[in-house]
Amino acid sequence: MKKVYGPVPSRRLGRSLGVGPIPFKTCDYSCVYCQLGRTTHMTIQRKDFFPPEEMLNEIRRVIEVESSHSHSKIDFVTFVGEGEPTLCKSLGWLIRKTKEIADIPTAVDTNGSLLYREDVRNDLSQADVVMPSLDAGTAETFRRINRPHRGIDFEAVVEGMEKFRQEYDGEIWAEVMLVKGLNDSEEELEAIKSRLRPIEPNRTYINVPIRPPAEPWAVPPDKESIALAHAILSDVNVVDITAEETGEFSAEGFTNPEDAILAIIRRHPMREEQVIDTLKKFEVEEREVHDSLTRLEESGKIKKVKYREKIFWLTMEEKRGHD
Ligand code: SF4
Q1: The CATH number of the domain where 261 resides is what?
Q2: What residues contact residue 312 under an 8 Å CB cut-off, 6+ apart?
Q3: Which pTM does this prediction carry?
Q4: Could you count the other beta carbons within 10 Å of the beta carbon of residue 111?
Q5: For the chain, what is the domain count?
Q6: Are 136 and 57 part of one and the same domain?
Q7: How does pLDDT run across 110-147, given as a tens digit for each residue?
Q8: Which ligand 1 atom sits closest to the C-alpha of 39?
Q9: Of 22, 39, 182, which is best to mutate to test ligand 1, by the most ligand atoms within 8 angstroms of its C-beta?
Q10: Which CATH number goes with the domain that contains 150?
């Protein structure tokens, strides 16, 4: 079991150690912009997909390895998905136990859909930062962009987020993913703002699909629309993260460079230059990196995608199996 990865550079969280407590592509949404591809396991059932104790042991082990390196630093332990992390029934327990292991802030990157449930609100209240998504201001746009499970009701989602705000003392960093032609008009942005206001996010991040999306037509809006979004969302503490992330991925814990690449791109498609930087840690020459990539591609494990003039490497859809 490998459910902990990184630290990876994050535009919001610095060097973030990711914990994925659920199987691949297990979610109650199937967002048009999802970098994992279309959701294959659509569910709203919370359960323990993996033994919580084993996940905790892995978190402990990686933190110990990282803290033994004087140059290494973890800014956040982030519970994040290859899908929706609040579907993990033991999420609250995992966050609490992680905080006992190390004095590192914890964050949960969630679509926020299950915050209407008291157990989910209790679980997330253990974290220092909760990062829910809100990409729509109306039920119609919500259906078009997030394509939720039929058991998810837009009004209940928004009410759950508001309720959580009333109960929770930590930071709420909302994220609005803008997709051209779907939610980037003035009317849509005003509707999103009216929904965000009562949630009182400490920050609101405007994001755009910078990695290859589930649907090829889910592309970033033009610069004017992003500027409009800034203007409209300015009174809900807006922050721009539409630029791409920089920094290095950690390849710690892997003895073999190809395993490192596979484990990281499975959760996080990488630009080709990031792959090369990661493999440099193994003192592998650039020519050998290209050979490794070709081998992995020929064995059907990864594929190359050109998106917005850059080469990205992804794991193959059928191999990922969005758990
Ligand atoms: S982007 Fe997040 S919420 Fe949307 S389908 Fe992908 S994993 Fe689920």
Answers
A1: 1.10.10.10
A2: 211, 212, 269, 270, 271, 272, 304, 305, 306
A3: 0.80
A4: 25
A5: 2
A6: yes
A7: 999 999 999 999 999 999 999 999 999 999 999 999 99
A8: 5
A9: 39
A10: 3.20.20.70
